């Protein structure tokens, strides 16, 4: 396959653009002027009509299968009250009267503007139904609420406790139907299992959604909080064996036990079915919870709730066991760590298991939200990868100072400090479906440090703003670095994969407030058009 792409504004590097490229067998072979490229090959020519083209984007951490689930389940994102949640639930039941189990996603009590501003409980969800089980995840997925019918299935007793999680109870010690962290994992056990066909359909739905938004690669945690990993793994493997999508896929596996991790490695990790589209991936761990739910692990109690400093979902002993197995098999480890204590403790373990005293396996921190200057410098000195979600600022701007105080907030979400001042490899992503996987909304947050409504006017601690070029680089070459693929993708460069996207406006010259509105006109993976906006 040979193609020449001309009349484009191809982003090559900061302040460097090209007019045309030549692609052969999925690889960019030459970059140059229209004349130079047409002199090589002019049989198959694609005229880009002076549009702006950037490298294909690579979300460094999301949950693609869960995106597929969320696209087909009860949507609670943006709900402004408990009553609205109940209304959405009833409407969902009206549309699907034969449902025997309802799974809802995306509510956030901090967005409730009318009525009580609190976590959903069993009595709220009972107003949707008491006949069928209902569980509803908070947007962060670290809190789950369920109705009385679901509680019956869970068989929660007065003395039931779950290490690394919390079961909320009322003054009579009766469960309120609210579960956090490891307790929330327990709730998910009652959810009916998807068939392989269900898993495939949802995965492909999400993959199509990702490609339409300009993602050509994803690093996705789809084996999550379970020991029953094979149905999902086998289905995704079959999707790539049968070439049902061209979205490049780098898995992030989360296991509940060391034995499950070893079983996966022994049965799959050394097989020969991996390729440029389906790779081996990394191990994903959860050290703490979320800031919104006050389950992110802090060194000091929460500024707005002195009774807690969060939840430690995994102790350092277990993380150390994982790192030991990872070292033996040369596998990368990445850990969800939001609070400063979660980040610091995770780095303690990493450092103890460095090979030859250095982070050669590129272990990383996912989220890395709450930091002080000492912690930022430690991340840099130890060369720890960071996988940021700048789009989290859309919500977190409203509450982070309340949660941790202004002093600690001022050194948190330190995008510019880590990337430009300290030279840390920082990749961008969305943690979708926690947030929309739209990468341009995420870039907008990084560049402006504002919510979509323009608040605050000068940006949230504006010294941490970055340029649009930085934002694109963190979504491309830096994400590729987190995979170990920085020599084959993430740039429009000779001998790199021909993965790129055509934009509807020039992202380098528009006003920063317009970045969130950028749309993808066409997505190319391996030089093949896999999406074209109608």
Summarize the topology:
Layout: E1 2-13, E2 16-18, E3 20-24, E4 27-32, H1 34-40, E5 45-55, E6 57-62, H2 64-72, E7 74-75, H3 82-95, E8 102-107, H4 122-126, E9 134-138, E10 143-146, H5 148-154, E11 165-169, E12 175-180, H6 181-188, H7 196-212, E13 215-220, H8 230-241, E14 248-253, H9 258-269, E15 282-286, H10 316-329, E16 333-337, H11 340-352, E17 364-367, H12 373-381, E18 385-388, H13 393-396, H14 400-404, H15 406-409, H16 415-421, E19 426-428, H17 439-448, H18 468-475, H19 477-483, E20 500-503, E21 520-525, E22 528-532
Parallel strand pairs: 1-5, 6-13, 7-8, 8-9, 13-14, 14-15, 15-16, 16-17, 17-18, 18-19
Antiparallel strand pairs: 1-2, 1-3, 3-4, 5-20, 9-10, 10-12, 11-12, 20-21, 21-22
Describe this structure in words.
By secondary structure, the protein is an alpha/beta fold. It has three domains: 2-55 and 494-532, Urease, subunit C, domain 1, CATH 2.30.40.10; 73-188, Diaminopimelate Epimerase, Chain A, domain 1, CATH 3.10.310.70; 282-466, TIM Barrel, CATH 3.20.20. It is 32% helix and 22% strand. It has 19 helices and 22 strands. Strands 1, 2, 3, 4, 5, 20, 21 and 22 form an eight-stranded mixed beta sheet that branches. It has an eight-stranded parallel beta sheet with strand order 6-13-14-15-16-17-18-19, with helices on both faces. It is globular and about 80 Å long. The two termini are 25 Å apart.
